[in-house]
Amino acid sequence: MIWLIRRAAFFWKLAHIKDTPRRLAFGLACGVLLGLVPKGNLLAIGIAMVVFATHVSLPVATASALGVSLFGTWLDPVTHRLGQAILTQPLLTPIWDRLYHVPLVAWTSFNNTVVMGNLFLGLVLLYPVYRLSLPWFVRYRHWVDLRTAGEQPDEPATDTAPAVPDAGVTESEPAPARPLDPSPAQRVIPRRATRKLRKCA
Length: 201
Fold this sequence. Notes:
There is one protein chain. The chain is mainly α. The radius of gyration is 43 Å and the shape is elongated. The chain has helices spanning about 1-15, 20-35, 40-55, 60-70, 75-85, 95-100, 115-150, 190-200. The protein has one domain.
Protein backbone atom coordinates (compact mmCIF):
# COMPACT_ATOMS: atom_id res chain seq x y z
CA MET A 1 0.00 0.00 0.00
CA ILE A 2 2.83 2.38 0.83
CA TRP A 3 4.49 1.58 -2.50
CA LEU A 4 1.29 2.49 -4.35
CA ILE A 5 1.02 5.78 -2.48
CA ARG A 6 4.62 6.64 -3.31
CA ARG A 7 4.12 5.75 -6.98
CA ALA A 8 0.97 7.86 -7.11
CA ALA A 9 2.78 10.81 -5.52
CA PHE A 10 5.64 10.42 -7.99
CA PHE A 11 3.31 10.39 -10.98
CA TRP A 12 1.43 13.38 -9.60
CA LYS A 13 4.67 15.35 -9.28
CA LEU A 14 5.51 14.55 -12.86
CA ALA A 15 2.21 16.11 -13.92
CA HIS A 16 3.37 19.50 -12.58
CA ILE A 17 6.46 19.85 -14.75
CA LYS A 18 5.53 20.57 -18.36
CA ASP A 19 1.93 19.48 -18.84
CA THR A 20 -0.55 22.17 -19.85
CA PRO A 21 -4.19 22.16 -18.66
CA ARG A 22 -5.30 20.82 -22.06
CA ARG A 23 -2.91 17.89 -21.83
CA LEU A 24 -4.04 17.17 -18.29
CA ALA A 25 -7.72 17.22 -19.28
CA PHE A 26 -7.19 15.13 -22.40
CA GLY A 27 -5.10 12.68 -20.40
CA LEU A 28 -7.97 12.28 -17.95
CA ALA A 29 -10.45 11.64 -20.77
CA CYS A 30 -8.19 9.09 -22.45
CA GLY A 31 -7.60 7.40 -19.12
CA VAL A 32 -11.34 7.04 -18.60
CA LEU A 33 -11.67 5.42 -22.03
CA LEU A 34 -8.77 3.06 -21.36
CA GLY A 35 -10.10 2.17 -17.94
CA LEU A 36 -13.59 1.33 -19.18
CA VAL A 37 -12.46 -1.09 -21.90
CA PRO A 38 -11.94 -4.61 -20.47
CA LYS A 39 -8.34 -5.75 -20.57
CA GLY A 40 -6.91 -8.93 -22.07
CA ASN A 41 -7.73 -8.17 -25.71
CA LEU A 42 -6.12 -6.43 -28.64
CA LEU A 43 -8.51 -3.50 -28.39
CA ALA A 44 -7.23 -2.44 -24.96
CA ILE A 45 -3.63 -2.79 -26.14
CA GLY A 46 -4.31 -0.67 -29.21
CA ILE A 47 -6.00 2.09 -27.18
CA ALA A 48 -3.12 2.08 -24.69
CA MET A 49 -0.58 2.42 -27.52
CA VAL A 50 -2.50 5.36 -29.00
CA VAL A 51 -2.78 7.09 -25.61
CA PHE A 52 0.89 6.70 -24.77
CA ALA A 53 1.92 7.84 -28.28
CA THR A 54 0.01 11.13 -28.11
CA HIS A 55 1.02 14.32 -26.30
CA VAL A 56 -1.21 13.87 -23.26
CA SER A 57 -0.42 13.80 -19.58
CA LEU A 58 0.69 10.22 -19.04
CA PRO A 59 0.58 10.38 -15.21
CA VAL A 60 -3.02 11.62 -15.25
CA ALA A 61 -4.00 9.09 -17.94
CA THR A 62 -2.44 6.24 -15.98
CA ALA A 63 -4.01 7.28 -12.68
CA SER A 64 -7.48 7.73 -14.20
CA ALA A 65 -7.23 4.41 -16.07
CA LEU A 66 -6.34 2.57 -12.88
CA GLY A 67 -9.11 4.27 -10.93
CA VAL A 68 -11.79 3.59 -13.53
CA SER A 69 -10.63 -0.02 -13.93
CA LEU A 70 -11.22 -0.67 -10.24
CA PHE A 71 -14.82 0.55 -10.34
CA GLY A 72 -15.63 -0.12 -13.99
CA THR A 73 -16.87 -3.64 -13.31
CA TRP A 74 -19.91 -2.17 -11.56
CA LEU A 75 -21.08 -0.88 -14.94
CA ASP A 76 -20.96 -4.29 -16.63
CA PRO A 77 -24.75 -4.88 -16.43
CA VAL A 78 -25.39 -1.51 -18.09
CA THR A 79 -22.66 -1.87 -20.70
CA HIS A 80 -23.81 -5.42 -21.49
CA ARG A 81 -27.25 -4.16 -22.49
CA LEU A 82 -25.73 -1.28 -24.42
CA GLY A 83 -23.32 -3.55 -26.31
CA GLN A 84 -26.04 -6.05 -27.06
CA ALA A 85 -28.23 -3.34 -28.53
CA ILE A 86 -25.37 -2.18 -30.77
CA LEU A 87 -24.31 -5.65 -31.96
CA THR A 88 -27.84 -6.80 -32.70
CA GLN A 89 -28.73 -3.70 -34.69
CA PRO A 90 -29.96 -4.94 -38.09
CA LEU A 91 -28.27 -2.13 -40.01
CA LEU A 92 -24.89 -2.83 -38.38
CA THR A 93 -24.94 -6.63 -38.58
CA PRO A 94 -23.26 -6.81 -42.06
CA ILE A 95 -20.47 -4.52 -40.83
CA TRP A 96 -19.78 -6.75 -37.82
CA ASP A 97 -19.70 -9.82 -40.05
CA ARG A 98 -17.09 -8.27 -42.33
CA LEU A 99 -14.96 -7.03 -39.49
CA TYR A 100 -14.96 -10.44 -37.85
CA HIS A 101 -13.31 -12.00 -40.91
CA VAL A 102 -10.59 -9.31 -41.09
CA PRO A 103 -7.23 -10.59 -39.74
CA LEU A 104 -6.45 -9.56 -36.14
CA VAL A 105 -9.77 -7.73 -35.75
CA ALA A 106 -11.39 -10.77 -34.17
CA TRP A 107 -8.77 -10.59 -31.38
CA THR A 108 -10.17 -7.25 -30.30
CA SER A 109 -13.23 -9.04 -28.87
CA PHE A 110 -15.49 -6.40 -30.36
CA ASN A 111 -18.23 -9.03 -30.66
CA ASN A 112 -18.37 -9.22 -26.85
CA THR A 113 -21.30 -7.22 -25.56
CA VAL A 114 -19.43 -5.92 -22.50
CA VAL A 115 -16.42 -4.86 -24.58
CA MET A 116 -18.57 -3.11 -27.17
CA GLY A 117 -20.70 -1.41 -24.53
CA ASN A 118 -17.68 -0.09 -22.60
CA LEU A 119 -15.99 1.06 -25.80
CA PHE A 120 -19.08 2.97 -26.89
CA LEU A 121 -19.54 4.49 -23.42
CA GLY A 122 -15.88 5.56 -23.27
CA LEU A 123 -16.06 7.20 -26.69
CA VAL A 124 -19.24 9.05 -25.72
CA LEU A 125 -17.68 10.31 -22.45
CA LEU A 126 -14.39 11.32 -24.09
CA TYR A 127 -15.33 14.90 -25.02
CA PRO A 128 -17.58 15.69 -22.00
CA VAL A 129 -14.88 14.58 -19.57
CA TYR A 130 -12.37 16.76 -21.40
CA ARG A 131 -14.59 19.85 -21.38
CA LEU A 132 -15.71 19.47 -17.77
CA SER A 133 -12.23 18.84 -16.38
CA LEU A 134 -10.47 21.59 -18.37
CA PRO A 135 -11.54 24.52 -16.11
CA TRP A 136 -10.49 22.59 -13.02
CA PHE A 137 -7.07 21.84 -14.46
CA VAL A 138 -6.67 25.50 -15.45
CA ARG A 139 -7.22 26.54 -11.84
CA TYR A 140 -5.03 23.73 -10.57
CA ARG A 141 -2.19 24.69 -12.92
CA HIS A 142 -2.47 28.33 -11.83
CA TRP A 143 -2.27 27.25 -8.18
CA VAL A 144 0.80 25.10 -8.89
CA ASP A 145 2.52 27.99 -10.68
CA LEU A 146 1.87 30.31 -7.75
CA ARG A 147 3.14 27.73 -5.29
CA THR A 148 6.32 27.02 -7.23
CA ALA A 149 6.94 30.75 -7.65
CA GLY A 150 6.62 31.26 -3.89
CA GLU A 151 9.14 28.52 -3.14
CA GLN A 152 11.89 30.18 -5.17
CA PRO A 153 14.44 32.04 -3.05
CA ASP A 154 14.26 35.81 -3.20
CA GLU A 155 17.12 37.66 -4.85
CA PRO A 156 19.39 39.49 -2.43
CA ALA A 157 18.62 43.18 -2.31
CA THR A 158 21.44 45.43 -3.46
CA ASP A 159 22.02 48.21 -0.92
CA THR A 160 23.32 51.32 -2.68
CA ALA A 161 23.51 53.45 0.48
CA PRO A 162 27.04 54.52 1.49
CA ALA A 163 28.62 52.66 4.32
CA VAL A 164 28.38 54.47 7.68
CA PRO A 165 31.68 54.51 9.63
CA ASP A 166 31.74 53.23 13.14
CA ALA A 167 31.16 55.69 15.95
CA GLY A 168 34.46 54.90 17.71
CA VAL A 169 36.62 55.43 14.67
CA THR A 170 37.62 59.00 13.77
CA GLU A 171 38.71 59.76 10.31
CA SER A 172 42.16 61.30 10.02
CA GLU A 173 42.43 64.74 8.47
CA PRO A 174 43.91 64.81 5.03
CA ALA A 175 47.49 65.97 4.80
CA PRO A 176 47.98 69.42 3.26
CA ALA A 177 48.92 69.41 -0.35
CA ARG A 178 52.57 70.06 -1.08
CA PRO A 179 53.24 73.14 -3.20
CA LEU A 180 54.34 72.48 -6.68
CA ASP A 181 57.94 73.05 -7.59
CA PRO A 182 58.37 76.31 -9.51
CA SER A 183 59.30 76.03 -13.08
CA PRO A 184 62.86 76.91 -14.15
CA ALA A 185 61.65 80.20 -15.54
CA GLN A 186 60.08 81.23 -12.27
CA ARG A 187 63.01 80.39 -9.98
CA VAL A 188 64.48 83.39 -8.19
CA ILE A 189 68.27 83.61 -8.02
CA PRO A 190 69.53 84.41 -4.52
CA ARG A 191 71.14 87.86 -3.89
CA ARG A 192 74.55 86.42 -3.05
CA ALA A 193 74.69 84.64 -6.35
CA THR A 194 73.85 87.89 -8.23
CA ARG A 195 76.62 89.78 -6.42
CA LYS A 196 79.17 87.17 -7.41
CA LEU A 197 78.05 87.41 -10.96
CA ARG A 198 78.44 91.22 -10.98
CA LYS A 199 81.98 91.02 -9.66
CA CYS A 200 82.97 88.54 -12.27
CA ALA A 201 81.54 90.79 -14.95
